[in-house]
Design brief:
The protein is an alpha+beta fold and 183 residues long. The chain has three helices and ten strands, in the order βββββαβαβαβββ. The chain is globular, with a radius of gyration of 17 Å.
């Protein structure tokens, strides 16, 4: 499946803003100054390169890729039988060739890589700086950024308590009953 990325440069503050078509709610406003721009560029892409962390693995980041929504991939990796605590999405980038981009990033970050895995012993800031330089782009999402709101990917009904949940990246349990989502 191809995704469509909207890249909008704010005419007021010159900040580059990223949106994913189909995941946009309301007006396209600058994440920094809230003005509306008419300078819109559309780009098709195949998937995402993501950076995730896990509190059970301090100091390590996992860099991977997917052609599905990042939330779906993270839910798989965070299954209760795989790790004791769910992964947290730190950042992700759009990619027209996610497998190639992931491989390039893994190669360029080899000095930080743990054996032949997707895990890297590197500070988050340094990791993002290097990936931005390698891919020559900014991430679509950065965790804990006050300027970027993670989009709602889809609505899921919890099988245990029947509550409707807005699924976003990093959401993998029902907030009402705390049950893991079953896909």
């Amino acid at each position: 499946m191809d995704w469509i990325e909207l890249s909008i440069i704010c005419p007021k503050c010159n900040k580059k803003n990223y949106f994913i078509a189909g995941m946009i709610e309301g007006n396209l406003r600058c994440n920094k100054c809230s003005s509306i721009s008419d300078n819109i560029r559309l780009s098709a892409f195949k998937g995402f390169v993501y950076v995730i962390s896990n509190r059970c693995m301090p100091g390590l980041l996992k860099i991977g890729c997917t052609e599905r929504p990042v939330a779906e991939r993270i839910l798989e990796l965070s299954a209760p039988t795989a790790v004791p605590i769910a992964f947290e999405v730190e950042a992700y980038f759009s990619s027209s060739s996610p497998i190639r981009d992931e491989s390039l990033i893994h190669s360029k970050l080899s000095e930080y890589r743990l054996s032949d895995s997707e895990f890297f012993s590197i500070r988050m800031e340094k990791c993002l700086e290097l990936i931005c330089n390698i891919l020559n782009k900014e991430p679509i999402f950065i965790r804990d950024s006050s300027q970027i709101k993670e989009p709602v990917l889809f609505i899921h009904t919890c099988t245990a308590c029947k509550t409707d949940i807005e699924v976003r990246v990093g959401i993998n349990r029902c907030p009402s009953c705390n049950k893991w989502f079953n896909w």
